[in-house]
Write a structure and sequence with these properties.
Blueprint lengths: L7 E4 L10 E4 L9 H8 L3 E6 L2 E6 L4 H4 L4 H15 L10 E4 L2 H5 L1 H10 L1 E2 L1
Parallel strand pairs: 2-6
Antiparallel strand pairs: 1-2, 1-5, 3-4, 4-5
């Protein structure tokens, strides 16, 4: 195993008709996500948000603020952490967002209960 988690959840900003808004995914090789896989999930470049224990990547392309709207599913669930650690407004979390499985994330029962309730396995 590498140093990235082997499971993640994609919070789709606008899921395709009939698909789930939050989907659990695993790496193609069964061990580690590649940069290409992560970028494919968000449809562009990725950035790690500095939330302790939560390895979160968000679409951060130039001009995204004009093209995308806030990812409300993600922002509502992670609002307190975003306000505490990232100090950014919700408009800055746009597009598809990937939440990586980490031990600290698993300790957050609110988030894990939500993921178990709404996430579909890809």
């Amino acid at each position: 195993m590498g140093d990235l988690p082997s499971k993640a959840w994609i919070f789709y900003q606008e899921p395709e008709h009939g698909s789930h808004p939050v989907v659990q995914v695993e790496p193609e090789d069964g061990e580690d996500f590649t940069l290409d896989e992560l970028q494919g999930f968000v449809g562009g470049l990725i950035e790690k948000l500095p939330i302790p224990g939560h390895i979160i990547f968000a679409n951060e392309e130039n001009g995204m603020y004009d093209e995308f709207v806030m990812n409300t599913r993600f922002v509502m669930l992670f609002a307190e952490l975003l306000a505490t650690y990232v100090l950014m407004g919700p408009k800055m979390i746009a597009g598809n967002v990937i939440v990586m499985d980490t031990p600290t994330l698993r300790e957050n029962t609110v988030v894990m209960d939500y993921l178990e309730t709404v996430a579909a396995v890809a």
